[in-house]
Amino acid sequence: MSAPATSTKVAAEGGTVSPRPAKPAWIRVRAPGSAAHAETARIVRQHGLHTVCEEAGCPNIGECWAKRHATFMIMGDTCTRACAFCNVRTGMPRPLDPGEPARVAQAAKELGLTHIVVTSVDRDDLADGGSAHFARVIDALRASSPSTTVEVLTPDFLRKAGALETVLAARPDVFNHNLETVPRLYLSIRPGARYFHSLRLLQRAKEIDGRLFTKSGIMVGLGEAREEVMQVMDDMRSAGVDFLTIGQYLQPSPRHAAVQRFVPPAEFEALRQIAVAKGFALVAASPLTRSSYHAGDDFAKLQAARSATQA
């Protein structure tokens, strides 16, 4: 799984331009165009909301929006970090919108979501990292759609004391924070983050609320070695992570980190089997796997796995 190193700095850091390679057949997806997709887009626009589906250029948007599934990205469309893999814009964000939690809740209700994923940009400019805003969104969802289960995909809340506790006090059903890549690549791929801080965040979430499902994901194709991926799996299991996602990194633009390798589907299946053997309750691994892809179905599988273990 390893590959020769390539200079892959983002433009904001003065990096080089890396032309995007042609995608193999197993990566290509059909363009969106269904009536349900258009209706999902209309609801998102009507309520003035952002989705990670659009901002991050997710390849699964056509499939998910056709099923009226959208992953809301709260706290604006501008991130305070400049990760080399991410397509979300970087800069100084606007102040938080106090009306956003209610609009997210109303949009989720109109879409008929039974399971919702809420993520955000990094907000290092806020004293609490935006954790109280996360909690307000969860509260609004609970009030508007009591039967809807809530999954949060949060930033790392680096140097934001008490932020994790604030989010968990609102009692989400799934707490997700992605490690994204192997420790060796953090400096070039995720320079504003710290691997062991992110790992500890996941561990603390489980310590604070044992009934909570915890989830994390990584990308492959960035130059990582197979042994490094397996070590990340072990680290996650030591932190009590229940659900692991593994997907192919896709380069958003020539100014983002270059794809070092397209990993074939058979290797994803091999990684999935290894992860299952290591004790994860659930593993999703495929070229198009993303954190919120099939999240509702996967939540049901997690519940079934826990029930079977308890029985």
CATH superfamily: Aldolase class I
Could you list the spans in which at least 5 consecutive residues all have pLDDT below 50?
2-14
CATH class descriptor name:
Alpha Beta
Domains (count): 1
Distance between the termini: 39 Å
Mean pLDDT: 92
CATH topology: TIM Barrel
Order of helices and strands: HEHHEEEHEHEHEHHEHEHEH
Main β-sheet: number of strands, strand sense, barrel status? 8 strands, mixed
SS strand fraction: 5-15%
Helical stretch tally: 11
Helix content: 25-40%
- The rough form would be described as globular
- CATH architectural grouping: Alpha-Beta Barrel
Number of strand segments: 10
Radius of gyration: 18 Å
Description:
The structure is a single chain. This protein is α/β, with parallel strands linked by helices. The chain has a single domain, classed as Aldolase class I (TIM Barrel, Alpha-Beta Barrel). The chain has eleven helices and ten strands. An eight-stranded mixed β-sheet has the order 1-2-5-6-7-8-9-10, sandwiched between helices. Helix 5 links the parallel strand 5 and strand 6.
